Amino acid sequence: MLIHACHSSSKKTDDNGLVLAKVNKKILTVSDLNQFTPKGISKADSVILLKKYITKWANDELFYQEALTYLTVEDIDIEKEIENYKKELITYKFQTKLIEEKLDTLISQEEIESYYNKNAKNFLLKNNIVKVLYVKTPASIPNLDKLKKLCYSNNPKDAQQLNALCIQYANNYYTNNNTWLMFEDLKKEIPQLKEVPEYNLQNGKIFEFSDPKNYYFLKIIEIKSKNTLSPINFERNNIKAMLLNERKKKLINSIKQDFFEKAKADKQIEIYN
Predict the structure, then answer these.
(1) Measuring CA to CA, which of 105, 109, 123, 193 is 20 to 30 A from 261?
(2) How many structural domains does the chain have?
(3) CATH at 150
(4) Which residue blocks in 119-176 are alpha helix, DSSP H?
(5) Which of 129, 109, 98 is nearest to 243 (CA)?
(6) 87: domain range?
């Protein structure tokens, strides 16, 4: 199918086969289309895709040729840039392999707490965070009154029943009141929260909203306001990432130093003052 499309699109032949396009002295032939392998499409679609490919090739080649004309000899001489990029890429891959093989990724709770305490000023909240009980259900569910009653209850047994009803009826819900959430994310879930002033956000505050389609229940278990110290549990993953990044730097620097000292001892390196 592709060869047929090429025959119907091409005008000339040369030593490399059918010529599909030409930009000055640069040509595109059938033998250049190894990467063009559309599958499971009709003959007509294949021809359309082939024409798009040829047009793109011609545009790209023309732009490249214009660049060669426009740029200076110094601009075009990029061998040094290519060599530097190759060196950086190989070095990066080597570092990645060393980190995979040698890095200790186990971070203890003591290390997390120590880092948190030493760098507390870096963990000020930029936005409000909350622990909540949140339920969103269709407004027409048969057990809505029962669900509301369970939402208000503090009885652990009622919490189990609430979870069961949420699994059955809720569009979305969040009953894990030990995890911190971004309050801005809740606003996306409950549009009416955008109208609630921040001074009205308090521990234990309950909000109920409804619209023609949905019922929303939200209880704020605990709130931490922006510009206050972020809880360590909220920052745990960030701290782990920071500590691992520090370990990576120390590991690579240590390996580099070992290589350097060994090379000096073996007289592979000579530095002239």
Answers:
(1) 105
(2) 3
(3) 3.10.50
(4) 144-152, 156-169
(5) 109
(6) 78-122+232-273
